[in-house]
From TrEMBL:
The keyword Oxidoreductase applies. This is Flavin reductase family protein. GO terms for molecular function: FMN binding; riboflavin reductase (NADPH) activity. Keywords: Oxidoreductase. GO terms for biological process: pyrimidine nucleobase catabolic process. It comes from Saccharophagus degradans. Its EC number is 1.-.-.-. Residues 21-168 form the Flavin reductase like domain. It is an enzyme of class 1 (oxidoreductase). The keyword Oxidoreductase applies. It holds the Pfam family Flavin_Reduct.
Amino acid sequence: MSGSSIESAGVTLAQQMRDGMRRLASGVCVVTANNLLKQRFAMTASSVTSLSDNPPSLLVCINTDSRINQPLLETQSFCINILSASHQLVSNTCASPNTDEQRFEVGDWVKNQETGLYYLNDAEAVFFCEKVSVLQHGTHNIFIGNITKVSTSQAEATPLIYLNGGYV
């Protein structure tokens, strides 16, 4: 590989992996869920992937230490909001150590009357999902959800992109 070093002396493989993954541009999403007490949770995530179109499904990877992990484990529904470039503050707020209610103080959040889940009214796209499987691997749970409803913005697509520790 021209101009690069494959090995980094004295750096753990885990750190090398994190450094390498910083070079992969990814869309930014906010995952929302409710716990059994109907309290709402939101978390910024860049590890969201389409899985299949038959059945329409996606997956999201969540650190087991994250506050949203338990609500995702104990309930069946969750929501994925694909953020637009105008949502940097929403992304930062939902990635911060703010309390869960404070995470909903920024952004145009709306409660879906069918599911009780909150979603961003002006997101690029919103996917409502029913959890069908959870796989644990290392420090993360992989939540697989069948998509039950999709809402897509009619505006020109301007997704929020994260690369090398910052927004592009």
